[in-house]
Amino acid sequence: MKLDNIYKEEKKSAFAKLSEIIITMASRPSGLIGLSILVFHIILAFISPYIAPHDFKAIDPTLMLQAPSAEYWFGTDDLGRDVFTRTILGGRTALTITFFGSLIALLWGGLLGIFCGLVGGKIDDVVMRIVDAFLSIPWILAMLLIVSLLGTSTEVLIPALGFFYGKGIVRVARAATHDVIAKDFIVSARARGHSNFSIIWNEIIPNVRDAILVEGAMRWSWMLLGFSSLSFLGFGVSPPTPDWGLMISNARGLMSFAYWAVIAPIVGLSSLIIGINLTADAFAKALGIDRSTKAPV
Amino acid sequence: MTDIIQKVKNLSIGFRSKKGEEILILKNISTNIKKGETVGIVGESGSGKSTLALAMMGYVKHGLYTIGGECQFNSSNLLRMKSKDLEKIRGRKIAMIPQNAGQALTPNLKIGYQIDEALQLHSDLDEKEREKKISELLNKVRLPSPETIALRYPHELSGGQQQRVAVAMALAGTPDLLLLDEPTTGLDVTTQAHVLELLNFIAKDTGTSMVYVSHDLGAIAQVSDRIIVMYSGEIVLEGPSRDILKRPIHPYTHGLLKSIPKLSLAGLPESMPGSQPQPGTIQSGCSFFDRCNFSDENCKNNSPKLEFLKNLNTSVRCFNYEKLVNESQASQTFNKIKNKSQDKEILNLSEVSISYAKQKLLDQIFNRISDDNPTVKDININIKKGETIALVGESGSGKSTILKSIAGLLRTKDGLIRFDENRNLSSDLKERDPNDLRIIQLIFQNPDESLNPNHTVEEIIAQPLKLYFGLKGEELKKNIIDLLQKVRLGEFYTSRYPRQLSGGEKQRVAVARAFAAKPDIILCDEVTSALDVSVQAAVLNLLQQLKEDFGTTYIFVSHDLAVVRAISDRVAVLYQGRLCEVGPSNDVYKFPSHPYTEVLLGAVLEPDPDIKPKLVAEDIVEERPPEKGCSFQGRCSRIVGDICKKEIPPWQLTDSGNAIRCHIPIKELQKEQF
Predict the structure, then answer these.
(1) Residues of A in contact with B361 (CB under 8 A)
(2) Fewer beta carbons under 10 A from the terminal one: N or C of chain A?
(3) pLDDT, tens digit, 9 for 90 and up, residues A85-97
(4) 8 Å CB contact of B456 and A11
């Protein structure tokens, strides 16, 4: 059998598959840039407490609004805190909260979407109308309500963000399931008598996983922006925890004469968002999903 | 030479693989199309036949590019032409008729408008003349009452009518060359025969040259003067169609013709081993080498050239064609199948009706379906253990619907489905217990859709084994390998994904999955229609072998009457969800007695230019079964009178055990055969 040679593609381990995908992603310039930025931010988040040159909450009135210097690379803010220290630490909270937030969004949005797509009928109608109703509420207002009622602790922020960003995933997962559900292998599994759970787990998830993961990656960057907006409005993490949204909010009034205090967190935030976006795009392309034809919900 | 209209010279088309290798789809093709002739291009999927036809109108599919050679039309190379110049040729000089006219017509524009658009583009007629021309064209393609058809939208027409409209549009520019890409493939048997007859008429009437691309040798045989046989991007045989079909001197064509089931002969045809090589995998030697029965060392190392034989007027690409020159095609051997059915009844359908009607609120409360004219009605069939019964009919005849109900995917409205004389299977999936589900397994039409693309072959076959028998670990693995060997696939297939298998291999995996449940009954829904001809015979042979080994009962649904003839013991002919005729296949095929069976059998295309289809009835499509009387009244050419419209015909039995539902007395039915 000569055909054997080209078909010699053994079942790969999850690790081998992942590394292959990452290599494909990195083979595109935009993917490589995105990945590098993202990896840089993640590494920074892990090591920043150990490399930070100053104490992030040390207030020193004598050092108010110092311009960048050899000692204070990015200068100091209006309370005399080191901007460099606060910038490299500022991504930690945002990354952690939004990462777990999007994980929750993926889980509930994905599973609910798949379930609705599979069972269809009245249940699907009712659930989707509820999701639509939530989509029509401006999320930031609803977030503000939740935060002012329950406080701004991580335990509140993660599930709340996860909930609001999962709504869109429900629709994507449902649509992806609809594509799969008409195929004969689902009919075949039904005729064999598999349970709904088994059909979702064995037949549907492997086929919609990629689409949902890509959607989740996109949601992550949007959530990051959303989270920073909350902080900017004063409803995110509370001071003195270093956070980009908070830093921008504090320093924006002084922008005209102390631009350094606001530029550093802006660069940090936007580079991370760009990094995640580029990575998600490259991820989608590596998986063979063309996002350009689908409008985000 | 002025009578050559299209000249293909040393044409090679290919693409570049990820590794940068040049992979050829067409290899050095040279051929001429003469004025007024119809050339058939035959080949299996992936042989490059569509790529060649598209190149003839200067189009190369996205991702492919021309590597060398040219397509000359009126002594200019189409493949080098600017798109502005090509626009003047396409539609006006060379027109294309697509495979699926339903998708090729714009859904929101009236038929007349679309034809007018073609006329405005390709002719200089003024409004009055165009108006006349539209009805002229619609008349030419034999659409009834052109004035009303022109005002309809595509979805209001049947598949056959849509295809006719596509032909009319192509003729609007009075082209010199018509390219037809599988124009009848999606159509019903009777419709297909009518469309082919129309194409034949148009070829004669207008003198247009035609290039007819198809995988179906039966259709090609009816229309073409000359046949080009393609295999893995090469022309392997080219010559007058009669010679090629009667005396194929290339081993591939020889084997292909042998593997086609025939209406006139019962039993399974011989199958050809292996499958067509993927592009880019051929090393040295003949591309057909590993499937060939006539090959030797020379074929392995050297690739044969296309050789023109003057005495036969044929070109052939084979070293050993002489061995085949003397062998005639009549030596076709069929493995007669033995009727293994026992007297024991295994499945009984009595008075079964199935409806797709939506339940209204009141019906939901009482859990009933109310529909006076259900899609499927009054089905009474006894199926014996070990037999193969085929359900035959055109699309919309309810054959798949009946299968779905037996499998429990669809609720029956009335009637009983009994298994083994006492177990009631009338309920749907939710109410059946796992064992009821195990005894009935399904094999689907398209293995691309019925196998989960993200599962390996092992995982696919493991599903029923885990579900029904709770197998695990070593034992599971052993069973999987065992099943794979039964369907003639080796152990090394376990770790492959469906996309790495050929069509035939995929269908074998689907068969293995069905047999994994150790079922008593297997429902086969058009299992061979998505496969290539050479592969089809192999799958049919496999199914027959497995049936003999396991004593399984098959319920076989197909629109291909020759395939049904080959494999079935008994045939049930359906029209509009009502039974017309049930009987042993030998009798049904030898003495077709019900008028509808006559129509169906008459329309079958055989790969033989001497056997012409007989067109008995009009190819009208009925949307719903008639409320009263015989289901076939709308198309029957032998209506007796008012009785056909008012009363449901009685069952009449012939001496051979053939049951026919017709008002015409049985003696008369048998007398008036064609």
Answers:
(1) none
(2) N
(3) 888 888 888 888 8
(4) yes
- Residue B674, pLDDT > 60, answer no
* pLDDT at res. A21: 83
| Percentage helix, strand, coil for chain A under 3-state DSSP, each rounded to 5 | 75, 0, 25
Helix (H) or strand (E) holding B414: strand B414-419
Smallest Cβ–Cβ distance between B452 and the set A10, A11, A185 belongs to A185
Which 3 state secondary structure label does DSSP give B191? helix
Q: How far apart are CA B104 and CA B342, in angstroms?
A: 50
Cα-based distances in Å from B402 to B425, B527, B557, B627 = 13, 16, 10, 20
Interface probe, candidates A185, A195, A207, chain B, greatest B C-beta count within 10 A: A185
pLDDT digits (tens, 9 = 90+) for B129-170: 888 889 888 888 888 778 888 888 888 888 888 888 998 888
Restricting to A residues 77-116, those with a Cβ less than 8 Å away from any Cβ of B are none
Residue pLDDT, tens place only, B591-609: 778 888 888 888 888 888 7
Q: Which of B153, B147, B121 is nearest to B134 (CA)?
A: B147
Integer Cα distance of A189 and A186 in angstroms = 5
- Supply the ipTM of this predicted assembly: 0.78
CATH 3.40.50.300 maps onto chain B at 4-93+175-241, 345-439+519-671
8 Å CB contact of A190 and B495: no
Q: Which residue in the set A4, A190, A202 is minimally distant from B409, CB to CB?
A: A190
Q: Distance between alpha carbon B294 and the CA centroid of its chain, in Å? A: 29
Strands (E), B585-622: none
pLDDT at A147: 82
Q: Which residues of A67-100 are buried (b: 16+ CB within 10 A; e: fewer)?
A: eeeeebebbbbebbbbbbbbbbbbbbbbbebbbb
* Shortest alpha-carbon distance between residue B366 and chain A (Å): 19
Residue B543: in which H helix or E strand, if any? Answer: helix B533-550
| Domains of chain A from N-terminus onward | 22-293 (1.10.3720.10)
Is A17 an interface residue toward B (CB < 8 Å)? Answer: no
Tokens of A145: 């309500």
Contact between B669 and B637 under an 8 Å Cβ cutoff? The reply is no
Confidence of residue B480 (pLDDT cuts 50, 70, 90): very high
Let me know: does B68 contact B136? Beta carbons within 8 Å: no
Residue B453: closest C-alpha in chain A: A207
CATH 3.40.50.300 corresponds to the domain B4-93+175-241: yes
Nearest CB to A192: which of B278, B290, B467?
B467
CATH class of B345-439+519-671: alpha beta
Q: Give the angle A233-A239-A244 at the CA atoms, nearest 5°.
A: 60
Tokens 């690379």 -> residue: A73
**C-alpha B518 chain-centroid distance:** 29
Q: Which residues of A touch B437 (CB under 8 A)?
A: 191-193
